[in-house]
Amino acid sequence: MKPTDIQQPDTFHKVVDCQWACPAHTPVPEYIRLIAAGRYSDAYMVNWHSNVFPGILGRTCDRPCEPACRRGRVEEEPVAICRLKRVAADNKADIRGRLTPIPAQGNGKRVACIGAGPSSLTVARDLVPLGYEVHVYDGAAQGGGFIRSQIPRFRLPAEVIDEEVGYITDRGGVVTHYGQRVESLKALLDEGFDAVFVGSGAPRGRELDVPGRAEAAEHIHIGIDWLSSVSFGHVTEVGKRVIVLGGGNTAMDCCRSARRLGGEEVTVVVRSGFEEMKASPWEKEDALREGIPIRNYLVPKQVLHDQGRLTGMVFEKVRAEYDAKGRRSLVPAGEPDVTIAADTVLVAIGQENAFPWIERDLGLEFNRWGLPVLDEATHQSTLPKAFFGGDAAFGPKNIIWAVAHGHAAAISIDLFCRGEDVRNRPPPEARLISQKMGIHEWSYDNDVSPDLRFKVPHAPDEVALRDITLEVELGYDREMAFKEAERCLNCDVQTVFSAKLCIECDACVDICPTDCITFTANGEEADLRQRLKAPALNLDQALYVADGLKTGRVMVKDEDVCLHCGMCAERCPTGAWDMQKFILEAAKSVPPVHAAAAE
Amino acid sequence: MSFLPKPKLHHPKLPTNDLGFTRRDYEGAISTLCAGCGHDSISAAIIQACWELSIEPHRVAKMSGIGCSSKTPDYFLGASHGFNSVHGRMPSVLTGANLANRDLIYLGVSGDGDSASIGFGQFAHSIRRAVNMTYIVENNGVYGLTKGQFSATSDKGSKAKKGTVNTDEPIDLVGIALQLGASYVARSFSGDKAQLVPLIKGALRHPGPAFIDCISPCVAFNNHEGSTKSYDFVREHNEAMNQLDVILGRDAITTEYAPGEVREVTQHDGSVLRLRKLHNQYDPTDRVAAMHHLHERKAAGEIVTGLLFIDPDPQDLHAHLDTVAAPLNRLGTADLVPGAAALAKVNAALR
After folding, report:
1. What is the structure's pLDDT at B257?
2. Taking CB atoms and an 8 Å limit, are A505 and B191 in contact across chains?
3. Residue from the list A447, A514, A570 with its beta carbon closest to the beta carbon of B35
4. Where is the Thiamine pyrophosphate enzyme TPP-binding domain (chain B) (predicted)?
5. Which positions in chain A have a beta carbon within 8 angstroms of at least one beta carbon in chain B?
6. What CATH number does the domain located at A99-202+353-417 have?
7. Is the pLDDT assigned to residue A198 strictly greater than 70?
8. Which of A247, A392, B112, B146 suits B212 as a labelling partner, its CA being 20 to 30 A distant?
């Protein structure tokens, strides 16, 4: 194998599994250390710079970071990264003075953002400090988009949304046009904006197409519309027997909301198997914990009604079959149909994009799925001044992806407005800083906590299920947060090897608790992976290879289960191993505002 | 030294041996020796060997004297019996323990000061009495604890860290062990676990006095230019006679060798020592030839390593003394205190 190039930012970025998995590349271990140190405001600012909505995401994020967390590979469960983020938001002081300053004098450029959801607001946040005047349009009366309309209040209180949307819209530079739905892109372009960002979301829920649907329409609701009605208080009750169709997180929000609005027998019905459901495992768990059964391999066949009054649904039992290529198809199981009685049906089987307000003669092309044709990196459409982000760009994703899109689009818009090539992207900022303080002292806590994941306390069911506005998760208190934060392995503190200092004494090999390090003859990667002290079978994790040793061997470190405990560096007599903090700031149009932790 | 204990978390795929233990279960406390000390590698090799042999930790008695080397039994086999004796007196304590209970596996760990200076006589007599033990000398050629004076195994002409040249003749413990009848004699290097681990395994399974001289560089005081016990010097001058594999009865034999390349020695307990020849003429069952070869290669400036001598059919102290087979702690009072009549009989035999 060729020696690893550690100057390449991706090399060590990939080792920080959580940060690599986060679409916005939030420096997770950095803010977790700040939480452990009780520096909640600093932790909040690290987050705010990267993901813009720490308080919101700390309650609702899809957390791609947690399945990626290295801790989950060395013991049972990952660090509760998402809920620690909430701790930073809950415990911070007034941070308004620390937000990016907005220049009094603008740069004369005007940008329109269509939709006031997370991607549009991110674009606004990233552009306003540069002097742009950003106009945000939304049909709703308040900002937040999906965050406000689709997430139930028992998961996300309105104050949290108001606060974090306010940090963007209420500090000048942003002109909000709430209650003003954009009906024509052409008309908007005619207003002379320098660029337009479309962050209008994926607002249409997919319809259910089975016999009886039309007749019983009064008691059948599209899930996201129904959630938004609940959120605004237009819907306050539901039938006693409720069927929720669909296996995504929207379905989970629907069933749990229905439980709180008087639904006594709430059943989730999914076409696929339980395991393949799109909903996050913890959302499924929360639903099951609230007494909601999830029935799988049932395909809707018919809606039963008694002269328009819904009485139930008939489902066909199916089973999964896989062809040679592993593609799944659901085939009839040949068992009798299943009938489930119901008073209300909530349909949460997916969402579709729709851009009826974009004229088709503007030069803005759409693909066969009805989505705009975009450059994946720049988010630029075939109409050069129009950029897309969030669910409007590549179909339904989630908040953290919308934020990442917003950052990318803001960079593009800034380049575009300055007349530069939008494909000429700024690189991320990466630095390596030694953490050595003394012979065996490091400026991070390298003692590995043996604790298992702490459960976030919940409000008791008898209270929580009676009030749909009561936040059900109580969040970690400071003491629990400290203990959970200590579970973080500090994967951003890298083991950096210098072959010319190494005397090949094996001290690091002997001490490494997870058998990561091997000195051996070089070879092809597949061969080398089998010859290490512990076979490196996780192909997603890179080998760190260094040559230049006196014996002609190579040092091979399997990054897979390294605890970043620093024992290799502590036992190294020559300082050939050093623990160095890898700081990566994903490129943004605005510079970081947080006071970085001691480096 | 590290102040933190080694984290308990281990590699999720860490294999277990026949007893269900992982290698980590054979560890001890974290080492307080200098970072990079060769002794820590030897501890790791002992851990690996005991794990591979599926030795029950509570069946091992680890004994040591005084010195850096003699601290190491704290760093491996945390669940075994241990005795840290007076300086240089480990062989006597080990002999006594062995006489009292021959069922345990005896592992004596010593250093060049402990065995070649203050305990030289003890070392010599335990070997010539043929105590069934594994005796490992962690040999760094220097008094590390007292900041780097030459020890009795320092080579003549070797330079100390501050430049003093050693004028005394060195004691070659391998030569002494061969001369005094050790039935398993090996030399190895802490920086070569591929060689060291099988040698320790073979020694632990050997039913007689097994001696391993393990060169173990002192990173703090004897790893400089001019030292003959530094990592670089040993790597450059290491002449391995053979590569050992210890084959237990149940292990399938998978590797094939050309005829004449491999020599197998079956020990009393059925374990097979398979020696892959790295040096054409070397016969490890010929004691006199081994001694001769050792001197010859030393004169040529080489450090001869590998399994240097093996007596496939050794006898130990218990056989010589015709002692009772059962450990003393399993004998009843009647056996241990046979009474005046028995004593009279013994006395009569001596008249």
Report:
1. 61
2. yes
3. A570
4. 66-214
5. 73-75, 440, 446-448, 450, 503-507, 509-511, 513-516, 534-535, 537, 550-551, 561, 563, 565, 567, 570-574
6. 3.50.50.60
7. yes
8. B146
Tens of pLDDT, residues B122-145: 999 999 999 999 999 999 999 999
Identity of the residue numbered B186: A
Token pair, residue B290, equals 């081994």
| Residue B223 in contact with partner chain A when CB distance is under 8 A | yes
Percent of chain B with pLDDT over 70: 96
Domain extent at residue B63: 23-321
Interchain proximity A506–B34, CB inside 8 Å? no
* pLDDT at position A324: 85
pLDDT at B258 over 70: no
DSSP assigned state of A130: G
Domains in chain B: how many in total?
A: 1
Residues of chain B positioned with their CB less than 8 A from the CB of A534: 11, 13-14
The DSSP 8-state label assigned to residue A217 in this structure reads G
The residue ranges of every structural domain in chain A are 99-202+353-417, 205-350
Asked if residue B3 is part of any domain, the answer here is: no
Interface probe with A: pick from B1, B6, B9, B52, most Cβ of A within 10 Å: B9
- Could you give phi then psi for residue A478, rounded to 5 degrees? -65, -40
Q: Which domain CATH number covers B62?
A: 3.40.50.970
Residue numbers in A near B4 (CB within 8 A): 446-447, 565, 567
Give B167→chain A minimum CA distance, Å: 28
Q: What is the largest CA-CA distance in chain A?
A: 87
Selected for mutation to probe chain B from A487, A514, A577, A578 (highest B CB count within 10 Å) is A514
| CA distances in angstroms from A94 to A128, A566, A593, listed in the order given | 21, 36, 15
Taking the C-alpha atoms of residue A183 and residue A139, their distance in angstroms, rounded to an integer, is 10
Min Cα separation A67/chain B (Å): 16
Whether B35 and A534 lie within 8 Å, measured CB to CB: no
DSSP string, A338-393: EEEE-SEEEE-S-EE---TTS-TTSS--B-TTSPBPB-TTT-BBSSTTEEE-THHH
Within a 10 A sphere around the Cβ of B265, how many other Cβ atoms? 19
In a domain, B48, yes or no: yes
pLDDT band for A596, please (50, 70, 90 cuts).
very low
pLDDT exceeds cutoff 80 at A351: no
Handedness of CA B192, B194, B199, B204 (dihedral sign): positive
Contact A446 B191 (CB under 8 A): no
Interface contact B41, partner A, CB < 8 A? yes
pLDDT at A316: 95
The topology (CATH level 3) of A205-350 is FAD/NAD(P)-binding domain (3.50.50)
- Residues B12 and A255: their CA atoms lie apart, in Å, by 37
Number of residue pairs across A and B with CB atoms under 8 Å? 99
Q: How far apart (Å, rounded) are the C-alpha atoms in residues A288 and A282? A: 10
Phi, psi of B309 (to 5 degrees): -150, 140
**Angle between the N-to-C axes of helices A281-289 and A249-260, in degrees from 0 to 180, rounded to the nearest 10:** 20
Q: Is B11 in Cβ contact with A505 (below 8 Å)?
A: no
DSSP state of A540: T
Neighboring chain A residues of B220 at a CB cutoff of 8 Å? 573
Which residues in chain A have Cβ-Cβ distances shorter than 8 Å to B38? 505
**A505/B217 CB distance under 8 A:** yes
The answer as to whether B124 is a domain residue is yes
Give the minimum alpha-carbon distance from B243 to chain A in angstroms, rounded to a whole number.
17
* pTM for the whole structure: 0.85
Burial of A74 (C-beta count, 10 Å sphere; 0-12/13-18/19+): buried
CB spacing of A506 vs B191 below 8 angstroms: yes
Cα(B19)–Cα(A598) distance, integer angstroms: 47
